[in-house]
Specification:
The complex is a heterodimer.
Chain A lengths: L7 H9 L5 H19 L2 E4 L1 H18 L3 H4 L6 E5 L26 H8 L3 E6 L33 H9 L4 E6 L5 H6 L3 E4 L19 E6 L2 H11 L29 E5 L9 H16 L3 E5 L4 H19 L17 H14 L5 H24 L2 E5 L15 H6 L5 H6 L3 E9 L2 E8 L5 H15 L9
Parallel strand pairs in A: 2-3, 7-8, 7-9
Antiparallel strand pairs in A: 1-3, 4-6, 5-6, 5-10, 9-11, 10-11
Helix pairs in contact in A: 2-3, 2-6, 8-15, 10-11, 10-12
Chain B lengths: L11 H10 L6 H18 L36 H5 L5 E2 L2 E2 L6
Antiparallel strand pairs in B: 1-2
Classes of the chains: A alpha/beta, B mainly alpha.
Organism (chain B): Candidatus Roizmanbacteria bacterium CG_4_8_14_3_um_filter_36_10
GO molecular function (chain B): asparaginyl-tRNA synthase (glutamine-hydrolyzing) activity; ATP binding; glutaminyl-tRNA synthase (glutamine-hydrolyzing) activity; transferase activity
InterPro entries (chain B): Asp/Glu-ADT_sf_sub_c, GatC
C-alpha cells in the first residue's frame, strides 16, 4: 500500500485499526519528499527529526488512551505541511523571502497551535511566492515550485508548495492563505480541494500579513471530507485577531451526506465572456450538467461590476501591502529592504503611490467605494440563488516563465478569484477533471459564513466524479 | 460613461520619489523596468473612472463588525522573554535593539 496517497479519512481509519502507525505515515511522507523534492521544490524547510519524534509520541498516545483519543485529537498522527507564511515556534519561517531567511519565530500562529493540539504532525514548511505575492509560485526567492502533474507548468500560487506537496503525497494536508487566489488557484492547478473561508472565519494571528482587509486562512486537501474536517479545527473566534467573528463553527463533516435536491445554482454570465479557454468553458458546462443531475436548478446571474474587480483589487491590496511590509526594516529580525524581490518592490511602490496625498481620493478611496459595489453584486445574487458556480481559472496551468515578464498579465490570471475576496465571501475549489493531462478546478461560491453548504455541494459532486483518485505520476 | 483619457506614464522622478518614500534603493535597471511596468498597471486603474460611485460608502470592514475591543490587560501568555524578543536581531547591544541615530 502506498501510504502517502491515502486521504486523511483513510489514514485515520488505518491508524485506528492498527494497520500502520503514525511513524510509518510520517516516514512514507518523508520518503516521498526525498524522492520528489529535487523535481518539485515544494518545501523550504523539512522538519524530519521533529516529525518522527512527534509521530512516536502520537503512537504512544494512541497506545495509552485507545481509539477515544481521536475524538479529542481528530488529526492525531497525520503528517501535514504549513505554508511558510505561518509562524511556527522554533521552526524557521521565511515567507518565501530571503529578507527573513533565518527567522525563527518565538511563537506559533493560532492555526498552527490548533492543528498541533489536534494531533497533526508538521513535516515541513512549504514554498510560496514571497510574502504571498503571486499566482504561480515563481516569485519565491527560493526558486519556483513545479506542478506534479506536469513539471514544465506552474502549480498555481501563492500557496504553490502547499498545492504540489499535497498532490504528490508529501503530506496529507497543507495550509495556505487566500488574499486574492492563493489557496484556490494552486488547488485548481493541482487537482485538490481548497477552501477560501469567509473573511474572519479563521484567525490570522501569527501569519505574516499581506493585505489585512482581505487576508483569509485556508487549506488544501485531496478530498472534501478532509477539507471540512480541517476547517472544523481551524475556524472560530480568536481573541488575538479582532477580525474573527463570534459565530459558532458547525461540524461541517456531519452535514456532507445531505441531498442538494432543489439547490439554486447561479451562473455568473460575466465569467463566460472574454479570455476564457474554450476547453475550460466546455469543462465547466459539463460540471454544471452534473450538478443538475444531482438536483441543482440553474439560473443565469449577473455580477455587473466584475470587470472592475481587478483594478479595484490591485489598488487596495498593494496599498495595504506597502503599509504591512514597512515593518521589515532589518532591526528586530531579518535583513535590509534592498533584498525585497521585484514583485514586493512593485507592490510596495504601487501602494505608496495610491496612498500618496493627492492620489488617495482618486485611487484608494475610489477603489474602496467600487469594492462596496462589487460586494452588493454578490449580495443581490444571493437573494436569488444559493451558490454561484464558475471556473477557478480562465486557463490551464501555464508554463513556467510564460507570464513572468508581464506582471499585468500575471495579475489577470486571478480574474475569477479576486472578486470573491473583495466581497469577503467564502469559496471552495473542487477538481472538475483534466484537459490534456492538466487539472482544472471549479469554484463554488456562497454568501458569508455558508461554508457548510459549500461542502455539501462539493461532496455530492465529488461523490459523482471522484477525480481525487487520479494522482500525479511522480 | 467617460471617455478614457490619455495614457498615464509615471515619470522617472516619480519612481525615484516613490522608492525614497518606501525606503527602497533601486538600481538603474530597476528604475527603467519599474517605470514601464508600474505605468502600465496605473494606467489600467483608470478603468475605475467609468464607475459612478456618487453616494456610495467605501468598505471599511467587510463583515461589518463594529468596535471589537480587547480589555486593556497584560496577557502573560503572550509576553515574550527578553531573550526571545532579541534572538532574531542582528542589530542589538546588550538588552536593546540598536538603530541608526535619527537626529
Amino acid at each position: 500500500m502506498n501510504l502517502s496517497n491515502l486521504t486523511i479519512k483513510e489514514a485515520t481509519l488505518g491508524l485506528k485499526k492498527k494497520k500502520f502507525s503514525s511513524n510509518q505515515l510520517v516516514k512514507a511522507c518523508l520518503d516521498k519528499i526525498k524522492k520528489v523534492e529535487k523535481k518539485l521544490n515544494a518545501f523550504i524547510t523539512i522538519n524530519e527529526n521533529g516529525a518522527i519524534d512527534q509521530a512516536n509520541n502520537c503512537d504512544l498516545y494512541f497506545k495509552k488512551f485507545g481509539e477515544g483519543i481521536f475524538e479529542k485529537k481528530p488529526l492525531l498522527g497525520i503528517p501535514i505541511a504549513i505554508k511558510d507564511l505561518f509562524s511556527t515556534k522554533d521552526l524557521k519561517t521565511t515567507a518565501g523571502s530571503i529578507i527573513i531567511n533565518k527567522y525563527i519565530p518565538p511563537f506559533d500562529a493560532t492555526v498552527v497551535k490548533k492543528l498541533k493540539n489536534a494531533g497533526a504532525i508538521i513535516v515541513g514548511k512549504t514554498n510560496e511566492d514571497a510574502w504571498g505575492h503571486g499566482s504561480s509560485g515563481e516569485n519565491s526567492d527560493h526558486g519556483p515550485t513545479r506542478n506534479p502533474y506536469n513539471l514544465e507548468r506552474v502549480p498555481g500560487g501563492s500557496s504553490s508548495g502547499s498545492g504540489a506537496a499535497v498532490a504528490s503525497g508529501e503530506c496529507f494536508m497543507a495550509t495556505g492563505t487566500d488574499t486574492g487566489s492563493s489557496v484556490r488557484l494552486p488547488a485548481a492547478y493541482c487537482n485538490l480541494v481548497g477552501i477560501k473561508p469567509t473573511y474572519g472565519r479563521v484567525s490570522r494571528y501569527g501569519i505574516i500579513a499581506m493585505a489585512s482587509s482581505f487576508d483569509t486562512v485556508g487549506h488544501l486537501t485531496k478530498t472534501v471530507y478532509d477539507n471540512a474536517l480541517t476547517l472544523e479545527i481551524t475556524a472560530g473566534k480568536d481573541s488575538y485577531d479582532a477580525t474573527t467573528v463570534p459565530k459558532d463553527v458547525p461540524k461541517y463533516t456531519h452535514y456532507l451526506e445531505k441531498s442538494i435536491e432543489g439547490l439554486k445554482i447561479g451562473i455568473p454570465e460575466e465569467y463566460f465572456i472574454s479570455g476564457i479557454d474554450e476547453k475550460v468553458e466546455n469543462k465547466i458546462l459539463s460540471a454544471i450538467k452534473q450538478l443538475q443531475k444531482l438536483g441543482g436548478k440553474v439560473n443565469k446571474i449577473s455580477l455587473p461590476h466584475t470587470e472592475y474587480a481587478m483594478a479595484t483589487y490591485y489598488i487596495l491590496v498593494p496599498s495595504e501591502i506597502s503599509s504591512n511590509l514597512s515593518k521589515f526594516d532589518g532591526i528586530r529580525y531579518g535583513d535590509e529592504r534592498e533584498l525585497f524581490g521585484d514583485e514586493a518592490k512593485r507592490r510596495i511602490m504601487l501602494g505608496t503611490y495610491t496612498l500618496s496625498s493627492g492620489y488617495y481620493d482618486a485611487y484608494y478611496l475610489k477603489a474602496a467605494k467600487v469594492r462596496t459595489l462589487v460586494k452588493r453584486d454578490f449580495e443581490e445574487a444571493f437573494k436569488k440563488v444559493d451558490v454561484l458556480i464558475a471556473p477557478s481559472s480562465p486557463t490551464l496551468p501555464f508554463k513556467i516563465g510564460e507570464k513572468a515578464a508581464d506582471p499585468l498579465q500575471m495579475y489577470l490570471s486571478d480574474i475569477f478569484l479576486c472578486p470573491v475576496n473583495l466581497a469577503g465571501m467564502p469559496s471552495l475549489n473542487v477538481p472538475m477533471g483534466f484537459i490534456d493531462g492538466l487539472p482544472v478546478g471549479m469554484q463554488i461560491i456562497g454568501q458569508q459564513f455558508s461554508e457548510k453548504l459549500l461542502y455539501q455541494v462539493a461532496y455530492k459532486y465529488e461523490e459523482a466524479t471522484q477525480y481525487y483518485k487520479i494522482s500525479p505520476k511522480i | 460613461m467617460k471617455k478614457k483619457s490619455k495614457k498615464i506614464i509615471l515619470s522617472r522622478q516619480e519612481i525615484l520619489h516613490l522608492a525614497k518614500l518606501a525606503k527602497l534603493r533601486l538600481t538603474e535597471n530597476e528604475v527603467q523596468k519599474f517605470q514601464k511596468q508600474l505605468s502600465a498597471i496605473v494606467d489600467y486603474f483608470s478603468k475605475l473612472n467609468e464607475v459612478n460611485t456618487d453616494n456610495v460608502e467605501p468598505v471599511s470592514q467587510i463583515t461589518e463588525l463594529v468596535n471589537e475591543n480587547v480589555d486593556d490587560e497584560i496577557n502573560s501568555i503572550r509576553i515574550l522573554s527578553l531573550e526571545e524578543t532579541l534572538k532574531n536581531s542582528k542589530s542589538k547591544n546588550n538588552d536593546f535593539f540598536k538603530v541608526k541615530s535619527i537626529f
